[in-house]
Design goal:
This protein has 152 residues and is an alpha+beta fold. The protein has helices at 11-17, 61-79, 129-145; strands at residues 24-27, 31-35, 45-49, 87-92, 107-112. Strands 1-2-3-5-4 form a five-stranded antiparallel β-sheet, with helices on one face. The longest helix has 19 residues, at 61-79.
């Protein structure tokens, strides 16, 4: 294999290194995709970077873009797989408050059907335009603090 993740206590790093078994679907030197052992539905895939990173902010933009390209490719494969698939969810839980349970960055890619039982309970909020504009300004300031500069 020749490429290894960096945390010997991480189950997903164990999968990358081959110490832990997994049903692999896709792999390249940077990304691995395998079947989720606790799927939301048949066909539920996990897509991870080969290096250990707890969350999305812990990888660079080049690896993030590659991860999303692989997710896109896998969505196409899932839709053409013959598994029941009327739609697809791509899901990322980044951080404990977001219900991340394995702290190795991973995307869930799983098929949906009209009669499945997967649900997210969300209380959608109404916000005023002033509140939305304030939130947008705060996020733009956060981008500036992170070193982002908009190309002119």
């Amino acid at each position: 294999m020749g490429w290894f993740a960096t945390d010997p206590t991480c189950t997903f790093c164990g999968i990358v290194s081959g110490r832990v078994r997994a049903s692999r679907v896709y792999e390249d030197p940077q990304v691995l995709a395998f079947m989720d052992i606790h799927p939301a539905a048949p066909g539920d895939l996990l897509v991870i970077p080969a290096v250990h990173a707890a969350g999305l902010e812990d990888i660079d933009e080049i690896l993030a873009a590659h991860l999303f390209r692989v997710v896109h490719l896998l969505v196409r494969g899932l839709r053409r797989s013959g598994l029941r698939c009327e739609g697809v969810n791509v899901f990322l839980a980044d951080g404990e408050a977001a219900d991340q349970t394995v702290f190795h960055l991973h995307f869930h890619v799983f098929p949906r059907t009209a009669d499945d039982r997967f649900r997210l309970e969300v209380r959608w909020q109404e916000r005023s335009r002033a509140d939305l504009d304030d939130d947008a300004a705060r996020i733009r300031a956060g981008l500036a603090r992170s070193g982002y500069r908009r190309d002119s």
